[in-house]
């Protein structure tokens, strides 16, 4: 049996995708469907409520008949799952878990309650004479660019970027983050410049947002996603579609417009662009560069003067920029994040796993401070914080780093990839007050693989691939619950787990919790 003094020294690599798994229980035993939110070519989106906790989620229901034996449709489904498993980013929608039965697949996502970007653009231009202010456009573009950086960093090309595939997290669009959704056509590949879906190129993308090289040759690369962002940016500046403005245009006519360089030049002389800033028009042209080799990259775009001009107002970082904390956002910077990280490293392994789960499940609205702080540190927008970014960010924000910062960083880096992913950072900086019994019960359900009401050693082995044996799992359980040595084979009950989950972390000093953005 392990003693409690050994608690923080069980070495365990924890992968985020352990928390995104196929739930073996029946979907309807865990969720109640409230209503349909929408439908599309590959299924129906439902609003569902977690029965035990009342948490609302968006569920994509995909009939197995849609997937069937069609090779392209199977690829679409497999690519979406693979992409969502790989991505961990504040501007990409989170897949919580997924189910299947004889009839359907059910992909359970965090709920984005706001409108999609397409509807938002229409609303703004219908309700305001002059449409978006440039600061608003730059904010929206920055969120989209960061999502694209996150994809490309993980060798993923989205291939169907359009306004309908971005949603606001909440109805308060002025304060909400924008999230990329629907990665059904995304491709996970180590070769980011290749010809994809050769069997049916017409399925890979939406004509009005396809890049010229895609239309002409069927070649998709990272630059193709940037062209699509350029088409969206044109709509943000003008309130008009760049291609297919005539509703009667057929897909073939739209593709002809995409290939016509003179047509693009005429559209870029739109009177609505005349009064836009030089920086705005320059970024738009660089996004709509016809030669993909010369087209601006997302990393370059985040450094573009048009995007950088709003950083001090947002209090966020972009590669190379000084972190500025505007007084409107000062309450959101978590100056105690490193102390909380150090407390996290002292927790039993099971509690750290539970905190990782909490970070995966918790609503964005509950952790505004931690999210804002992560985005400040993540200078290149790729969804990871390197040690250099953390150290530099603390220095620029005027926060004195502890002498053991490197050691703390290494122990928070649970997947041992030399960077803190979004989930690791959030887990390590959660406050005791961020945790709730609801979150505890959701986590318990996730880890109770066989559904018998106990988290047993076998459940842990099945849940976390890096727990390599039942004996290893017993050590993890006894580290957290040494008093249960006689019943450890049965496992721990929900009551015991909730007690561990809600127990306050051992203090270093008086560590305060940042205010939430209410």
UniProtKB/TrEMBL annotation:
Subunit structure: Monomer.
Keyword terms of this UniProt record: ATP-binding, Calcium, Kinase, Metal-binding, Nucleotide-binding, Repeat, Serine/threonine-protein kinase, Transferase
Catalytic activity: L-threonyl-[protein] + ATP = O-phospho-L-threonyl-[protein] + ADP + H(+); L-seryl-[protein] + ATP = O-phospho-L-seryl-[protein] + ADP + H(+)
Domain Protein kinase, first and last residues per copy: 31-307
SMART domains per UniProt: EFh (SM00054), S_TKc (SM00220)
Biological source species: Perkinsus marinus (strain ATCC 50983 / TXsc)
Binding site for ATP: 60
The protein's name: non-specific serine/threonine protein kinase
Enzyme class: transferase
PROSITE patterns, per database record: EF_HAND_1, EF_HAND_2, PROTEIN_KINASE_ATP, PROTEIN_KINASE_DOM, PROTEIN_KINASE_ST
């Amino acid at each position: 049996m392990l003693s409690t003094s050994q608690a923080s020294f069980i070495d365990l690599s924890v992968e985020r995708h352990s928390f995104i798994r196929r739930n073996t229980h029946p979907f309807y035993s865990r969720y109640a469907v409230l209503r349909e939110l929408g439908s599309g070519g590959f299924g129906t989106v439902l609003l569902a409520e977690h029965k035990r906790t009342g948490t609302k989620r968006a569920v994509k229901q995909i009939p197995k008949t849609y997937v069937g034996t069609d090779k392209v449709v199977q690829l679409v489904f497999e690519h979406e799952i693979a992409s969502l498993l790989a991505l961990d980013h504040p501007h990409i929608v989170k897949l919580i878990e997924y189910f299947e039965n004889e009839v359907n697949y059910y992909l359970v996502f965090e709920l984005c309650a706001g409108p999609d970007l397409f509807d938002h653009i229409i609303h703004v231009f219908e309700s305001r004479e002059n449409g978006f202010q440039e600061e608003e456009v730059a904010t929206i573009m920055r969120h989209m660019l960061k999502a694209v950086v996150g994809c490309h960093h993980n060798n993923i090309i989205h291939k169907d970027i359009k306004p309908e595939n971005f949603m606001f997290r909440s109805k308060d669009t002025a304060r909400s983050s924008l999230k990329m959704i629907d990665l059904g056509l995304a491709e996970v590949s180590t070769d980011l410049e290749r010809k994809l879906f050769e069997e049916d190129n017409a399925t890979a993308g939406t004509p009005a947002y396809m890049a010229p090289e895609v239309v002409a040759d069927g070649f998709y690369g990272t630059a193709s996603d940037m062209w699509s962002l350029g088409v969206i940016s044109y709509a943000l500046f003008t309130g008009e579609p760049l291609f297919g403005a005539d509703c009667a245009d057929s897909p073939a006519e739209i593709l002809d417009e995409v290939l016509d360089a003179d047509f693009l030049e005429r559209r870029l002389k739109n009177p609505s662009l005349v009064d836009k800033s030089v920086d705005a028009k320059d970024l738009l042209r660089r996004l709509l560069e016809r030669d993909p080799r010369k087209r601006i990259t997302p990393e370059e775009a985040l450094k573009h003067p048009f995007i950088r001009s709003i950083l001090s107002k947002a209090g966020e970082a972009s590669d190379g920029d000084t972190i500025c904390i505007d007084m409107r956002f000062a309450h959101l910077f978590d100056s105690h994040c490193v102390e909380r990280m150090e407390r996290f490293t002292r927790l039993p392994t099971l509690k750290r796993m539970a905190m990782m789960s909490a970070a995966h499940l918790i609503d964005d609205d509950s952790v505004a401070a931690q999210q804002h702080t992560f985005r400040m540190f993540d200078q290149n927008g790729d969804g990871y914080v390197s040690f250099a970014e953390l150290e530099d960010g603390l220095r620029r924000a005027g926060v004195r780093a502890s002498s053991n910062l490197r050691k703390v960083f290494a122990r928070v880096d649970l997947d041992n990839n030399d960077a803190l992913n979004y989930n690791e950072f959030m887990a390590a900086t959660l406050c005791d007050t961020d945790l709730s019994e609801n979150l505890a019960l959701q986590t318990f359900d996730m880890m109770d693989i066989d559904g018998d009401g106990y988290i047993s050693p076998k459940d842990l082995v099945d849940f976390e691939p890096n727990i390599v044996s039942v004996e290893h799992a017993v050590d993890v359980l006894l580290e957290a619950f040494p008093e249960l040595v006689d019943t450890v084979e049965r496992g721990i009950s929900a009551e015991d787990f909730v007690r561990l989950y809600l127990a306050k972390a051992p203090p270093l000093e008086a560590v305060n919790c940042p205010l939430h953005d209410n």
